[in-house]
Amino acid sequence: MMTSISKPFFALLIALFTLAGCSDANIPQEGDKYTIIPTPMTDTADVIEVFSLGCGHCRNMEAMLPELQSMAKVDIEKVHVTFNEGAQLAAYIFYTGAIQTDGKPSKQLVKDLFAYIQDSDENLSPEEKRASLEKIFNQYNLLSPYELSEEQHKIVYQQLSDAETLVANAEIASVPAFLVKGKYLIQTSAHENLEDIANTIRYLNSLEN
After folding, report:
1. Could you give the 3-state DSSP secondary structure of residue 186?
2. For residue 177, what are the domain limits?
3. Which stretch is the leader sequence (predicted)?
4. Deepest of 2, 91, 133, 172, by most Cβ within 10 A of its Cβ?
5. Number of structural domains, the chain?
6. pLDDT of amino acid 11
7. CATH number of the domain within which 45 lies
């Protein structure tokens, strides 16, 4: 003879199923909020922002990055794309600063480099552009791309090569993009706001490789 289920127990079951449903709804879904890249990589930072100094959306994201890091409770490393000749030039400028600051150029330097790439007067002569770039680096007691030693140039070229490999493996076609654990590519356009992106970063960063 089947034992009848009491009303309080049945109500508890309904409540548990309801809570489970709400919880699942908050879990970022593969194919929607993120994808698994074709060629996962090891020995990468937990979270990487792939960006370009020539990208206006990246410049806007730069201003929000401290808040995003705080929300996601993680440090975010930066990798500059090398899509084309212009991006390669900007990447060389960025990595010139990066190799002299243990890979973490100051936020103000990055802000100034965004401005140099995006706001410089097109009518400036090559000499004036060079002087402007040297002034930016020198005010942070750093060498400009024109002042690097041969060994430092080689290090920058290696950074460019590593960035190109990462972007190719992840099949990144637009920026800004966020790569988590060298495996998960976040679809930024599928997120409603910064907290939504942070939630996806926290979730993916908690997954076992």
Report:
1. strand
2. 32-205
3. 1-20
4. 91
5. 1
6. 57
7. 3.40.30.10
Residue 17 in domain: no
In a domain, 188, yes or no: yes
Omega before residue 176 within 30° of 0, cis? yes
Residue 122 has pLDDT above 70, yes or no: yes
| Angle ∠(193,167,50) on CA atoms, nearest 5 | 35
Whether 20 is in a domain gets the answer no
pLDDT tens, position by position, 165-195: 999 999 998 999 999 999 999 998 889 999 9
Judged against a pLDDT cut of 70, whether residue 2 lies above it is answered with no
Q: N- to C-terminal Cα distance for the chain? A: 49
Interatomic CA distance for residues 122 and 114, integer angstroms: 15
Q: What gap in Å lies between CA 59 and CA 110, rounded to an integer?
A: 9
Residue 174 resides in a domain: yes
Eight-state DSSP code of residue 58: H
Q: How far apart are CA 93 and CA 109, in angstroms?
A: 11
For residue 178, what are the β-bridge partners?
49, 186
Going by the DSSP 8-state scheme, the letter that residue 37 receives in this structure is -
Give the model's confidence band at 130: pLDDT under 50 very low, under 70 low, under 90 confident, else very high: very high
Q: What is the pTM of this model?
A: 0.84
